[in-house]
Specification:
By secondary structure, the chain is an alpha/beta fold. The protein has three domains: 236 residues, Rossmann fold (3-Layer(aba) Sandwich), CATH 3.40.50; 134 residues, Trna Endonuclease, Chain: A, domain 1; 130 residues, Immunoglobulins (Immunoglobulin-like, Sandwich), CATH 2.60.40.10. The protein has 17 helices and 33 strands. The strands form eight sheets. It has an eleven-stranded mixed sheet with strand order 13-7-8-6-3-14-15-2-16-1-29, sandwiched between helices. Strand 14, helix 9 and strand 15 form a beta-alpha-beta unit. GO terms for molecular function: methyltransferase activity. It comes from Rhodanobacter ginsenosidimutans. This is site-specific DNA-methyltransferase (adenine-specific). Its EC number is 2.1.1.72.
Length: 656
Amino acid sequence: MANSLLEQLPEIVREGRKQAEKILESLEGRHRVSLQTREWVLPSKDTRDSDWIAAANRQAHLSEEDTADWTNRLIYGDNLLAMAALLAGDEHTPSLRGKVDLIYIDPPFDSKADYRTKVSLPGVELEQRPTVIEQFAYSDTWSDGTASYLAMITPRLILMRELLSETGSIYVHLDWHVGHYVKLVMDEVFGKDNFVNEICWWYKRWSAAASTFQRMHDTIYFYRKSEKYKFNQLFQPLATSTASVHGNTRRINVPDDTGKLITVRTDEPSKGVQMHDVWEVPFVVAHSQEQVGYATQKPIELVARILEASSDPGDLVADFFGGSGSFAAAAEGRRVEKHGNTSVYTNSASRRWIVTDLGKPACMIMRKRLIDQGAKPFLYQAIGDYQVEAAKSAMGRSFRVGDLSGIVLSLYGAQPLDPDDSPLRNLGKVVYAGKKTLVLVDSPNKLTGAATLRKAITQREQLLGGWDRVVVLGWNFEPSIGQSITVLNDSRLEVLVIPPDLLDRLRKKGGIEKLRGQVRFSSLQYLTIKPVRRTRSGEEETLQVTLDNYVLLSPEAINLDDDNRKKLLKVANAEPLALIEYWAVDPDYDGEVFRSVWQDYRGNSANDNDPLRVITAAEFSVPRKAGERRVCVRVVDVFGFEAEVVQVVAGTGAEA
């Protein structure tokens, strides 16, 4: 008979500690995990703002990235790796070990729900099934059920404790599925004596429950790091009936004949009563102004109470299961309007924040939401060397890149070349119908670009007497890869994308043999723009950037059923630009960090009233610059795939 969860729990915690300790030991190593900045976002949602002073201020801010005390961070990737990078620190930010003042997490509830993403396009609505990597975080389909869930959460809670300051606190938001088990883990990680409160979030969400009482609350576990934890007492208003009777009153001792305490009316406003541990906060319903279309969205008022209670303005706060971005939105300091008698407890000044999520849809929703509310500039980052770190996690720390190349070659159906001909173990061959194809697997440590393609063509012509064609398989690509392929114009060269969730699938399926024949290597998506127009006007100049075409990453790489795939192809062929969810422009791209000073996205009412399309032309002012400009345009499609194009634009007039 299998052991019960309570019997398995000590071993789960022991293994979680070992995993966390290995990560902590690696922080000082040469190959520690790092973060790569994919975009530096300066929210500017209104294209009609042509004030050159505002533009100049945005431009001046571009140079502050390396010297600013702090820039908020939205991080895409596994939060275990993100926390490892934050603990390790980098050249721009020292280690955050013991520096985070408050952590709130709203992890998946082990509900076995299948969180499918609904994608609305002109004329159709698609249903995208989660990728395997997102299923790990959202669909909760672990092979060992709740035991695997606890094995996932335990090392993460340990790293969160390492990040917390001595005055810090953590709030973990769960429901009846696993809350009681996770509390036992938290007692082990944070100490039973450091448990502060069990908060009940009560909401009205009617459902037809025939054989049970209706489930209308979640549970939030509040733990401190130490006895020195920060706590700001919150108050809630008196009930309407009580307030109407008593008004603003207080009891004082009045010297009358009896000497008793009597109640007299004063001009002092009442703070109300100390907030209790049952919070009635309205659920985010479909027609709510807060609604951003995310299945597990939490109301800003809920997380704002937590921010006010356990942090102060300017404190560093973090959410490692970002979801819809309510935590970051509240941390920005935006005050929510009161509705009727509903009390709103949100911070009046902003906090510094870090938010992470493993889902691309979640990161896109958060990025749009923050831009829409006019957030301060923030970094959009990803895990550096993500595939290498994932491989080490799946295959052991002794893993070498050559091992991964061999796996990729095998799954593509290629035989590896002899080590003498392939010292990096990244070359293979496919021989079919008398034709020989050379296969090159690029390293996950680098961006596949023009140099790799030229090298592949040279090897095709010279290695072992020559080959009929060459296929390059890459993990990550230079922004200009589409242009590089166009310039080479080589019909005997093919560039394909290695599935980004390959390692997770290997771990889930249990090895290469079970995946053989199931892995699809997809073609690249690419973007084209029309010639950028640059017009000088005094001390500023106007840039006009127009989208031309977008070719989607192979639909085979998107987790759709046949019917939905047909619908997608129909839209992609008729109106390819309708597939774009978000696009941004960097007028002076340095080839490393994309700094977006103009953005548009579906649903941006400042630009148009079409919720299913972005505008396809941008016109905005920037400070005048002598000489050429390197204009970079980045798009993200409705499935979260990114593409970029760079165009060098000559100077205007005498400055050209």
